[in-house]
């Protein structure tokens, strides 16, 4: 992902007497970086010839996804719709905060069959309307955009998980900083593949 008008970031750097440059952290604002610079200068000053704040233009770099994570933003409200003693069925309302944005019926109990995720700038969710099939819902429109065919003796998904960028990164290393490694730090990128083993 890239953005045309990215804001700069500010990295506190220090140089050793033998010319090596180290990063002591990166911040989104100059004021935050100045505070870190003062702290860094106080603690490592005698081991470095100089410490400074480097302003880095991040135009065209990977864009760290916004928070909250999709699974923190989108939730479900589940209502049992079967008669007592009959096969379990549920009505599922998909919520964005307190607002209902979609609904569907499932022919089994819910289990953990709702997992919102982002793909580039769009929000989707893995869901299961039929207990033997997985579907993908577009959370912008509430429409199912991909679905497996149900099969009476098919595999029964009981839970989904799609890692988000914030599940594997803490946000302390930012695109453009010295220690940013695109192959490691940009994963997950929003590209999505489904793999199955059975």
Mean pLDDT: 89
Hey, roughly how much beta strand do the residues contain? 25-35%
Question: How is the quaternary structure best described?
Answer: single chain
Identify low-pLDDT runs. 194-198
Order of neighbouring strands in the sheet with most strands: 7-8-9-10
How many H/I helical runs?
Answer: 4
Query: How many angstroms does the end-to-end distance come to?
Result: 33 Å
Number of domains: 2
List SSEs in N-to-C order: EEHEHEEEEEEEHH
Radius of gyration: 23 Å
Q: What is the makeup of the main sheet? A: 4 strands, antiparallel
Number of beta-strand segments: 10
Measured as a percent range, the helix fraction is: 10-25%
Global structural class: alpha+beta
Estimate the global geometry from the Cα principal axes: elongated
Explain this structure to me?
- The chain has 2 domains: 1-64, no CATH class; 70-162, no CATH class.
- Helices cover 14% and strands 31% of the residues.
- The protein is built from 4 helices and 10 strands; from the N terminus they run E-E-H-E-H-E-E-E-E-E-E-E-H-H.
- Strands 7-8-9-10 form a 4-stranded antiparallel beta sheet, with no helix packed on it. Strands 2-1-3 form a 3-stranded antiparallel beta sheet, with helices on one face.
